[in-house]
Amino acid sequence: MSIINKKPYRIISKEYLADDIVSMWIESGNIAAQAKPGQFVSVYTDSKSELLPRPISIAKKGGILRLFISICDYDTKKGAIRLVFRIAGKGTAELAAKEPGEYAAVLGPLGNGYADVTADFDSSKRALIIGGGIGIPPMLGLAEHLKADNKIVLGYRDVLFMNEEFEPYGDVYIASEDGKHGTKGNVIDAVKANDIRADAIFACGPMPMLKGIKAYAEENGIPAWVSLEEKMACGIGACLACVCKSADIDSHSMVHNKRICK
Hints:
Elements: E1 4-18, E2 21-27, H1 30-34, E3 40-44, E4 54-60, E5 68-75, E6 80-86, H2 90-97, E7 103-110, E8 126-132, H3 138-145, E9 149-156, E10 171-176, E11 183-184, H4 187-193, E12 200-204, H5 207-220, E13 224-227, E14 243-245, E15 257-259
Parallel strand pairs: 4-5, 8-9, 8-12, 9-10, 10-11, 12-13
Antiparallel strand pairs: 1-2, 1-7, 2-6, 3-4, 3-7, 5-6, 14-15
């Protein structure tokens, strides 16, 4: 994977999907051309007191950022990525305050995408795609990429966002904590309530949700790939700020952990 140098990119559009959730399309040059579903970018603030970038996931072929922000979508023809992120602090508030025509410094694409493990998927395979909270946007690009029999389960605390954008790419099921939308409970409750079967699971969201998915996958003998999140500093695997415990020994640190950014 090649890393793009940090550069300022022009913001094309901005939209609020909820009171605290922002969707942005940003011109990104080669980031859009190289991005894969599941990758993210680092977004730098203008503030002198906020030195570290924010990681944001790339949502789709347009791209999604989350300061380390996941790429939500990406448009290779327009050379743009879409970033969907929740305003959670000073850095994301600063990014959200920017208007179309202004610039944001972005580094990416970073991390691993799902492309390698989905290469042999076709319409005969059943893929269960699960997103929870702000882990929902990064799964849009995967849903679009996977030409499988997609079952998509989205978990919300209260307000729905982006659920209609998934509908062209598979059957969509909703779980909400208060039961106002879809199944009352968590994403696994929705999977069981709708008797969803799958050959593989792909998920992104809060750690308690991912632990529940891991247990469900092991219990049912289903291979699963989960996209973890953690506070990051460098985003390229050098600083070890985002490690999590693992059964395997990391080749860089030589201890039982994994660098989430890698």
